[in-house]
Write a structure and sequence with these properties.
The complex is a heterotrimer of chains A (101), B (482) and C (161).
Chain A: H1 3-23, H2 27-52, H3 58-88
Helix pairs in contact in A: 1-2, 2-3
Chain B: H1 5-27, H2 36-54, E1 60-62, E2 67-69, H3 71-98, H4 102-121, H5 125-143, H6 150-181, H7 186-195, H8 200-217, H9 226-233, H10 236-261, H11 266-288, H12 294-310, H13 322-356, H14 366-369, H15 371-385, H16 391-405, H17 409-435, H18 449-467, H19 470-478
Helix pairs in contact in B: 1-2, 1-4, 2-3, 2-4, 3-4, 3-10, 3-13, 3-18, 4-5, 4-10, 5-6, 5-10, 6-7, 6-8, 6-9, 7-10, 8-10, 9-10, 9-12, 10-12, 10-13, 11-12, 11-17, 12-13, 12-17, 13-15, 13-16, 13-18, 13-19, 15-17, 15-18, 16-18
Chain C: H1 2-22, H2 26-46, H3 50-74, H4 89-110, H5 124-133, H6 136-157
Helix pairs in contact in C: 1-2, 2-3
The chains are: A mainly alpha (101), B mainly alpha (482), C mainly alpha (161).
Chain lengths: 101, 482, 161
């Protein structure tokens, strides 16, 4: 199977994630869009591992670490979102903008 | 697998210390939480001692070749530990007055410091990525620790979103690098990039993604939007820690990747870095002119400083040689000096802020009300501006020389222009302090002992390096990787 | 065979990803994310990364999506249609299209002739050995990241007395 197909899929996923980050204004939706980008990187790592026949399995190991870190970050991120909601009753990024320049 | 325990001793000491901090926090009653601070201070001091024992040793490599202890790693780790010590000393009274959870604060600060130590020893994309996350994840929480303050909440959210976005972009770039070279080891990436005829475009694309990812961490233009809001909203000692230690950690990662893995592609990324550096310093300095809040002023000033530190990368030569060496040394020397002047300025802001306020207007007539504080603030601000004979002047001179050696004269001109612009806003604060009548601010500010120590150490370093710039220059030249 | 599976899963991922960034309903968004993650897990299985695939299912789908749904409920996000997009949508579309265009052209040019061969079986055994010998440093660092995240999440989300 041509590896380029997989890479184009992951590039698409990455770009959709960027769109979501720029176009969305709800913090949780922005978070989900970033998860798309992380998954694009994961797909790349796994398919390159297969393509290159890495004996060290570094591609798969890298993907595992990305998944772990993403979970840890999400825990902290949701704690921040809940904190903000408790204080302001909104999680919209537009409204959470007391400070400019 | 054999483990060289001497090489990992500082990290082991610090890991032990942070576990002790966690347990001590658990058993202490609420009114005795202040005791955690000496415990953390001892932990970092112990780490520093273990590091000093490693100084001057030949290079050690352990943990499957992932962990390298050389003079670069040791120098920067010492810098991180000193920055952490200053932050700890700065935080103690601040936290008690603001009612911030002390146990968690010190624990998270030590976690972040551990990530900084490991990033200085990482010569592989995987540990660099993981260490950067260990630097950032506790920092999100630190930024939001003033829980009832909406600004602090927002600081944490912005920092968090920008940081994981940058991580995602960086990881996508790293995956492409792995795809074209088949390795994540920095030295091997350089070898394979030189050996295999890969398309230029894909190499450039992946380097671009990685640089963009680091651009957020070091607050380079146009990825600096989170910086002023996050610094202003965070507890002030956290802002100091972020602007010194966290930013330096980002630079450490970037310098390693650019100088070891990608220097063969320098032709391609040099103009891009030059543009980013110039835009970063110009943007930071111009917007700083309009600021009225001291922490935001320092935030924009730190963006401007990031531009200076980035500048030597714009003269990197494909063939290596002394130009690269000098450029690397100049960036490191600037980082070493920058840490003390920035820490000093922030600690004065902490010392005065509680009673006097954080707006620049509040500093009116400080020279008559608290002359000591006003004088040291002047020292730090003039050092940041680069006025001789203070340390900042030497730092700028190193960068200037490196750029001239690389024959990029227009960069030197841009830097000189920026230094003049920057002088205006630093001088504005100084003028407020000495040439305006005292407002209704407090007379005579009481500075807690620990904070006095922070200010004293920073002042001494700024003056010492200003008089003997070769100290920093020599240390930096010893600690390069090229 | 593999190409057919890839085609179907890729179509699913593309559809779910696009819906995720355009839907006007937060909970639907979380479910589309789940579909993307499940699709990625199938791809990992296809590319002989069995362990990564099951970690993806357990951690990402099992923990992350559930956490997100909890987050949505705890913040009592209005469930149902609402305006979730900012004013910068056209700009966002242009930027992301440009990134997709450039990235996909370059990867297409670079990896045009190369194909993956589904030959070498990968066992969890070898992966485990790799993690605990060569990659033990990042593993240890990650453990501290998890500890810090745990403490951090608790201290932030806890209600003050």
């Amino acid at each position: 199977m041509p590896v380029a197909w997989v890479l184009i899929l992951s590039s698409f996923l990455f770009s959709v994630g960027i769109y979501g980050v720029l176009a969305r204004r709800n913090a949780v939706l922005v978070l989900m869009s970033i998860e798309l980008m992380l998954n694009a990187a994961n797909i790349n790592f796994v398919v390159f591992n297969l393509l290159l026949h890495s004996i060290s399995y570094i591609g798969q190991v890298f993907a595992l670490f990305i998944i772990t870190i993403a979970a840890a970050e999400l825990g902290v991120g949701l704690a921040i979102v809940i904190l903000i909601f408790r204080n302001r009753s909104t999680v919209s990024i537009d409204e959470v903008s007391l400070m400019k320049w | 697998m054999q483990i060289d325990y001497a090489a990992v001793a500082p990290e082991l000491v610090l890991t032990g210390a942070l576990c002790i901090v966690l347990v001590v926090d658990l058993v202490l009653p609420d009114n005795r939480k202040g005791l955690i601070m000496p415990v953390s201070l001892l932990g970092v001091a112990g780490t520093l001692l273990a590091l000093l024992a490693l100084a001057g040793d030949p290079t050690r490599t352990t943990l499957g070749g992932m962990f390298v202890v050389d003079s670069f790693a040791v120098t920067l780790k010492i810098l991180f530990c000193v920055a952490a010590l200053l932050t700890l000393a700065m935080s103690y009274d601040y936290l008690r007055k603001e009612g911030i959870h002390q146990g968690e604060f010190y624990f998270l600060l030590l976690c972040s410091l551990l990530g900084m130590l490991t990033i200085a020893s990482s010569r592989d994309l995987l540990p660099i990525f993981v260490s950067l996350e260990l630097v950032s994840v506790p920092a999100f929480v630190l930024a939001g620790l003033q829980k009832i303050d909406v600004k602090s909440n927002e600081a944490a959210l912005k920092f968090f979103l920008f940081s994981i976005l940058s991580t995602a972009v960086m990881l996508f770039g790293m995956s492409l690098i792995y795809g074209i070279t088949g390795t994540t080891n920095l030295a091997e990436i350089a070898v394979r990039l030189a050996a295999t005829p890969v398309l230029r475009s894909i190499a450039v694309l992946s380097v671009f993604f990685v640089v963009v990812g680091f651009g957020f961490k070091i607050s380079a233009f146009p990825f600096q939007w989170w910086v002023p809001d996050t610094y202003e909203g965070s507890p002030v000692p956290v802002a100091a820690f972020l602007s010194v230690a966290s930013k330096t950690a980002g630079f450490v990662g970037l310098l390693q990747i650019m100088f070891i893995a990608f220097h063969g592609l320098a032709d391609v990324w040099r103009p891009f870095i030059a543009a980013v550096a110039i835009l970063t310093m110009t943007f930071g300095n111009l917007v700083a002119l309009t600021q009225r809040h001291i922490v935001r002023l320092l935030a924009y000033s730190s963006i401007g400083q990031a531009g200076y530190i980035l500048l030597p990368l714009a003269v990197v030569n494909v063939n290596g040689g002394s130009v690269n060496h000098e450029a690397f040394a100049a960036s490191i020397a600037y980082l070493l000096i920058y840490a003390f002047m920035e820490m000093g300025a922030f600690s004065v802001a902490v010392a005065y802020g509680r009673e006097g306020g954080y707006f620049i207007d509040d500093y009116a007539g400080l020279g008559y009300r608290a002359p000591g504080l006003a004088v040291v603030m002047t020292v730090f601000l003039f050092s940041l501006a680069g006025i001789p004979p203070l340390a900042g002047w030497a730092a700028k001179l190193f960068i200037f020389r490196a750029v001239i050696d690389g024959h990029e004269y227009w960069l030197a001109v841009a830097m000189a222009v920026n230094t003049v612009i920057a002088l205006f806003y630093y001088a504005k604060v100084v003028r407020r302090m000495f040439f305006e009548p005292a407002g209704d601010g407090p007379l005579g500010v009481k500075v807690p002992l620990l904070l006095q120590a922070t200010i004293a150490v920073s002042t001494v370093m700024v003056l010492l390096v200003g008089i003997l710039p070769d100290l920093a220059a020599h240390l930096a030249r010893m600690s390069t990787l090229v | 065979m593999q190409q057919v599976v890839f085609g179907i899963v890729a179509a699913l991922i593309v559809f779910a990803a696009v819906r995720l960034v355009t839907t006007r309903n937060l909970v639907h968004g979380a479910l589309y994310l789940l579909a993307v993650l499940a699709g990625a897990a199938i791809l990992f299985l296809l590319f002989l990364a069995e362990f990564v695939a099951w970690v993806q299912v357990l951690v990402y789908i099992g923990a992350v999506v559930v956490l997100l749904l909890f987050g949505l409920m705890l913040t009592r996000a209005p469930i149902g249609n609402m305006a979730l997009d900012s004013q910068t949508r056209p700009l966002a579309a242009v930027v992301s299209l440009a990134i997709f265009g450039i990235t996909s052209t370059i990867v297409w040019k670079t990896f045009k002739g190369q194909t993956v061969h589904f030959s070498k079986p990968n066992t969890v055994d070898t992966l485990g050995r790799a993690i605990f010998s060569q990659y033990v440093l990042p593993f240890e660092i990650v453990s501290v990241v998890l500890l810090a995240a745990l403490v951090g999440a608790v201290v932030l989300a806890r209600k003050e007395e």
